[in-house]
Inverse folding.
């Protein structure tokens, strides 16, 4: 569960990126975060990830107020969320398998658990046969699947995706969205920041729209309004 | 799911060393150079101390004993001198010893003192050597207070100037060592910073999947230790070969042989130097990697 209570964020330059944002994304929900570039979308994501601190207001994640979370506790917060980026962020010198296993090593999983879990997640994203391949031998869509596998391998309670289809062609983008939907159906909260209008329109999920730092719309429907 | 991940971290450290061959060899070369200079100063310092000890043990004072002193008094005197702090050895020289020493010095001309055998004018004396030349004055004061001591003859100027030199050299080596350690830490932290920079992407991903700072630091610290240890062993080998040939050269010179001075063999200080190098290498490696990581852990 993600809750924003009157959250505002101003950067030191004086620019206010988010103004008085309040919303609740419940456990198991699927929500799109839409808005043009510079609207404050990225800042919202950064606030959820605790990469940025809010200037005022409170952020509650899984029932815990993270507004004043100590820096040493941030890693444990991030273990409760899987994160996917537009540019995949895979390690080029590690194989697909190692890239996914890496996320498990980081949380100090046992080797036995890693050997069991990684193939499972790779087959879930349809890459069971590419385990020993390096990222540069994969297509963009396949790379994003690896990133997805890495994000969910530790069974996080929520998945945050920042423009996950931004670098992909429309067909591949749909594959990824389908996977995100599957993950959501298994009970994971999914938050997707995007400006892919056709996808948002067709998925017909909750849409939180931010414009110049203000949340201007929050309802189920398409990119621009109800369908 | 808590699992001790030391094995994984060490593996990653070795992997990184193998992957970043250029970076690693650059670090090792720089580290070897600093450690070589360090080793040179360390060895020079150790040997100077060693020489000073030898010189100190040769330097001493002659304590002249009252002619009327009884044998008991003379024996007591020895134990009293022994008790004084800073005294190394106390050797008794009888009148006869003194006479024969003079005779030996005169050689062919010993006829000059021909009559001395009958009426020996030389006094009994003790030759006192010191453990630390800087205590010279204090020791002399104490000895003069003992009954039966007539006077002390000693080359005070030589002793005090030797003491000053010894102290100066010790301070200089110590100062240099501190400076060199600081320089090494900064050089190594700079080279590891380059490795960290090359892997900043990996670090940021680690932060996003919830790695603690300790976990992220792990492989870099291992890398620092590997670089430190390898450099230590390489430098030790180079220093060993260089040291032995230089020392042999010095010892074979006639001047040094005449002074009766010896230097350490490399095998005498090998263990000491090995420990110093390993502690220094791993210490600098760990410190350097921690310093160079600081900036990148603040995501």
């Amino acid at each position: 569960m993600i809750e924003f209570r009157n959250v505002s964020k101003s950067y030191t330059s004086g620019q206010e990126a988010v103004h008085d944002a309040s919303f609740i994304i419940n456990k198991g929900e699927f929500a799109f975060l839409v808005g043009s570039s510079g609207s404050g979308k990225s800042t919202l994501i950064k606030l959820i990830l605790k990469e940025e601190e809010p200037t005022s207001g409170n952020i509650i994640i899984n029932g815990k107020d993270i507004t004043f979370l100590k820096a040493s506790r941030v890693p444990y917060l991030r273990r409760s969320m899987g994160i996917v980026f537009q540019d995949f962020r895979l390690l080029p010198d590690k194989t697909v398998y190692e890239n996914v296993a890496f996320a498990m090593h980081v949380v100090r999983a046992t080797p036995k658990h890693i050997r069991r879990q990684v193939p499972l997640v790779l087959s879930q994203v349809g890459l069971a046969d590419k385990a020993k391949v390096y990222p540069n031998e994969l297509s963009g869509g396949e790379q994003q699947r690896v990133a997805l596998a890495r994000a969910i391998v530790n069974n996080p309670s929520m998945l945050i995706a920042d423009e996950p289809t931004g670098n992909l062609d429309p067909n591949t983008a749909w594959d990824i969205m389908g996977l995100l939907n599957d993950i959501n159906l298994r009970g994971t909260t999914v938050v997707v920041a995007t400006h892919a209008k056709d996808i948002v329109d067709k998925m017909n999920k909750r849409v939180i729209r931010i414009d110049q730092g203000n949340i201007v719309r929050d309802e189920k429907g398409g990119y621009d309004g109800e369908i | 799911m808590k699992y001790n991940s030391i094995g994984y971290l060490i593996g990653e450290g070795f992997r990184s060393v193998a992957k970043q061959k250029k970076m690693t060899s650059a670090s090792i070369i720089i580290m070897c150079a600093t450690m070589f200079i360090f080793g040179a100063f360390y060895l020079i310092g150790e040997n100077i101390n060693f020489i000073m000890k030898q010189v100190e043990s040769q330097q001493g004072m002659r304590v002249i004993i009252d002619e009327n002193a009884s044998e008991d008094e003379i024996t007591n005197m020895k134990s009293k001198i022994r008790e004084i702090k800073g005294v190394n050895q106390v050797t008794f020289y009888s009148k006869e010893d003194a006479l024969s020493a003079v005779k030996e010095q005169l050689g062919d001309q010993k006829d000059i003192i021909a009559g001395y055998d009958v009426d020996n004018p030389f006094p009994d004396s003790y030759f006192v050597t010191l453990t630390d030349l800087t205590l010279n004055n204090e020791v002399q004061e104490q000895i003069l207070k003992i009954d039966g001591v007539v006077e002390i003859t000693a080359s005070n100027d030589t002793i005090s100037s030797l003491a000053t030199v010894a102290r100066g050299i010790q301070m200089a080596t110590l100062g240099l060592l501190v400076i060199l350690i600081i320089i090494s830490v900064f050089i190594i932290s700079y080279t590891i910073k380059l490795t960290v920079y090359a892997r900043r992407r990996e670090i940021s991903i680690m932060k996003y999947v919830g790695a603690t700072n300790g976990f992220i630091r792990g492989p870099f610290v291992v890398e620092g230790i590997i670089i430190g240890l390898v450099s230590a062993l390489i430098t030790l080998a180079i220093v060993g070969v260089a040291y032995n040939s230089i020392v042999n050269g010095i010892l074979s010179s006639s001047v040094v042989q005449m002074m009766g001075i010896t230097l350490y063999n490399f095998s005498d200080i090998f263990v000491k130097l090995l420990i110093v190098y390993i502690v220094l290498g791993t210490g600098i490696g760990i410190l350097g990697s921690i310093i160079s990581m600081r900036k990148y852990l603040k995501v």
About this structure: Strands of chain A lie at 2-10, 16-25, 30-34, 56-61, 64-65, 81-84, 158-162, 189-194, 205-211, 214-221.
